[in-house]
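Record pair follows.
FIRST:
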Amino acid sequence: MRVLIAQPEFRVGRLEENYQLILREIEHAREEKCDLLMVSGVGLYNLSSYPELIRDTLSVYNRQQELIESLGQHAKGLHMILLSYQDITRTLSFMEFHKDRWILHEPDALSNFMSGGLSDFERNSMVEMLETKHGRTRFVVGATHANFSFEMLDEQSIVFVDTAQRHSCVTFRLSSGGVEGANVKLGHSGYFTPGGKSYELGVGQGRVIYDSKQPDEALQPCQPFMLAHELTAPLLYETLVEGLRAFFRAQGMQKATLGLSGGIDSAVVAVVAAEALGPENVLAVLLPSRYTSPESLRDAQQLATKLGIQQTTIPITPLTEAFEQSLQPLFGDLPPDTAEENLQARTRGVLLMAVSNKLGYTLLNTSNKSEIYVGYSTMYGDACGAISVLGDVLKTAVYALARHINREEEIIPQYIIDRPPSAELREGQTDQDSLPPYEVLDEFLQQLLQFQSPLPEIRESGTFDPRDIDRMVALIRGSRHKRAQFPPILGVNEPVYPFTESLDGIWPAE
């Protein structure tokens, strides 16, 4: 039995487009001489994310049924499983082998068992179903439409692996790839064998074939199963690359530009963009000021050359001096402060947006999650962009990404990784002049956002200096207006709190 597991990049609400994607998978399954096609049905079922698109619910439902029936006609001679996470009667299906016939159990029989998507599974309940009702099961198929996160991926994968090994059956995960808005979907459709091997796609579009006649060792490129947390940097890098590529594909965009400063954030974004879009489609703009060190300019040029991306240099000092001269009658003898520093960032933002508008390049924002949550960015300056590539990646993880990128050869100049991070908006400036050490800040943000720990509990844990807590809380609460105006963020973590929403709700009164 040859099984094609397909993972298209569906667009929410685009029934006709998604229907065509499934038709292509049917044809591909035939070309590969497969007996069975498995594909997520979310492209034909999921409209809930954008209810405003639904004007006539009955008409939409009728069209869904027509398309599903049409797929059945096109798939004649080919078995097909179309699963949707939303409809609990389609969430999980069991197949048995009977005299060379593959039988898909009626999903209605499972409706009393299922109460939601795969993320809600109780492992013991799933095992009980297999033992008491489907003792001869050889395949288990589960569908999901979750957003990507390491926690979600591990939680689901453990269920699939455990079921495969304990019941000597092959388990299949069906998911949609690509992005929904700017959130990267979980993806990772694939299969898990009783022998502990697995093959999973990434988060982008793709397909994989499982052949039941082949032993584990012959299934290529099947690998021993590993938890997502064991592959944090490489998996995060792959997810960012495929997620950015999918975002551009969904928006009909091809070319990107970014400000390349010689710092670690823009360096990592440049590498991700070059791989996702192709180096010929990326333009790096170097925007040195009088505070830009020669090393920063050198490293930015070296990185652009190494990646093979286009590069151009526009000095900003004449422009910032013109701004300062125009403002001098108003500012008078007031000493320089963040106003002059932010003028530099905003000058860069104006120039980058001009390049984007004139040349048709999409501007990539290069801020990281740590900076965004404490407001360490300039509105209408380095906060500009159409999509934030690292906006859901903590600063310490950015360093891990850089080390991963350099694992075989030096792509990012080592000086960029080794030197203290700095916005270079004044002489001798470093990030730690304004922020706690990133190791402290990131641990606090992880406790607060990822683990949703109440603030009193964080204080009582003794993990952080009380003064650091007060400082970080003040920064986060004081920069809500900045987050509310930030570009869309390539979401690679759950849960994600909307920037327009106050975080006070997860901080009980102390």
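SECOND:
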Amino acid sequence: MFLTNCTHRKLWIGLCLVLSLGSGCTKMLTQQAVDRFSKSLADKDPDGMKLAVSDQFERRALRREEALRDMEVLNFQTGKNKILEIEQVSKDEVRAKVEIGKNKAAREVVYTLTRDPKIQRWVVDDVTLKQDSGRGEVTRSAIEQLDLVMSVREFVDAWHSQEPEKILSVTAPELREQLEPLPPAWLTQLAGHVAQQTPQQKSLRPDARMKDDSAFVQVGTVTVQFQLINDRWLVRDAALKDDENTVRSALKLATALRQSQEFLNAYSAGDKERLSKVASKSFHDSCLVSADLSQAPVPGKELFEKPYEARQQKDSLDLILKSSTGAVVVSLDVLSKTGTTTPEKSALPLVSEVTLAEDGTRESKRLSSVFLHEAMVNLYSEALVARDVPRLQSMSTLDFRERVWDRVRPDVIKALPLPEIEAAAPEIFHVTYAGAKTEVTVTQGTRALTYVLRSQPGRMEIEDILIPVENRPSSLKLTMENLIPVYEFIAGIEGNNIQRVSHCSAESFNAMIWSQLSEVPDLGFDPIALLTLPLTGMKVDDKLTRLQFGNSKLGAEVQIERSEGQTHIHDMTLITGTGPNNRHELLATMRRMISGGLSSDGKIIQANAETTSSTPSKTSSLPRIQQSIELQ
């Protein structure tokens, strides 16, 4: 027994001496380690491979049975190995440059070997490969690549499993933070939607782009972003293929679902402090902060038990949630940390509107409409009665502003007749909700009016006011935009302002008449009296709008043309009595006057060359339409 123990001790000491000998022994032991690794790979021997690699290599790169198959996919070559160069990094680590194959097929790789303290021999700790990335040759760690491929497989399996714990186990903290609180139905639906586009395959050939602690891997039609955390590749996001209305980013969708869930829970609890954290500032400040939330109940927990539908809009994201009575649409805007609208997927979505749609009805109520329509109608009515243009501009839609309020001057707004708008508080007796549009019908004094409101992000605006009238459209917007040039013409005549008269006239009218005059001619009778008679009719066609003031015996017919969003007077007929001789077309009459001797300063040029006075008499020099008519 003693001799046997001594013999073992001598052999052990001898082996240690061999291991510590010069470069020749190191090269031999390195060659053996590389050969063991290469043979196990060629034989597809998982047990032999585990003996040929370090614990780190086994833990990170061989943890799944598909590992050897995936090593082939990563172009690990097998064949005769030749040590070209060895670098002694430390007493327990060497780095060897190895040539695999022969001649033109030969390929150089770098093996990193470490001394396994349990078996006291060199084992492969990593292999550095040169690969074509499609953008040039790059050097990559085999462990990192295999670890990433294993992580891809684990991601695919977990998200196909439809088990919340497995789904969460492969996600990075940023994504997990959004997914974990979600209702199970929503979590499994989101994961299942991604899994549909990432098929499970025996042979996985992911297209990976790695940089530092992040990697982008194309799996099926999904681009998966991985993040390296504590030596584990975890899923940070998954981007689906770019289809219309599809929310591509899983992280963005999960965050939107989480924000919507929090909003609905806070709304049901009446917790406005929590609402302020998940609602957009404009929606919260203008609508929710002072609202009685009980006026518009929103379903709560039942929404979390049914599938959702997500739609990506141009500047927002809509979640359509089903309830027992209809549907709830939660609209979210994406805001960056600076508060500006941005498409960044990492930015925080905030709820900007909620729409309630009930089965069996055509109504869809927006919360902003429910909470704001009464105040908007009252404020707009007050501003309209007061002819307060700045307030009217601030509360109107862009279309209403551009067509009416931005064009009307202070003297014209005071003169414009609005007999249907009485100075009385409106009393609401019916509200019709139609998504973004809300129609509020009121009695205002003795009149019935319908205020048409349009919901904008975080606010309501007046789109039009509908007035029950005969012989003309009910739209106040349409009526006013056609009356404005008429009352601009009146103001120009009153002020002898040829520029103002020209400004409200059509291009053809200006070219033939007003451009040839420096002041407004004396028309011989008062057109203002005819143009300010009550508006009794309006007909609109594709080219012209025809306004009727007064009646067929006394009044005016004005033709308005619309060009490039502006309305101008095309022509007008002044009616001073019955019969054709009392219908005076302004454009034709003034053309005859100009051709008959109207000077550029608005005066008639005397036909007699023997002028006796530089001041013309009223009877001979003032250009009167009536005089021109009598000559016809």
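COMMENT: Residues 369-468 form a domain with the Nuclear Transport Factor 2; Chain: A, fold (CATH 3.10.450).
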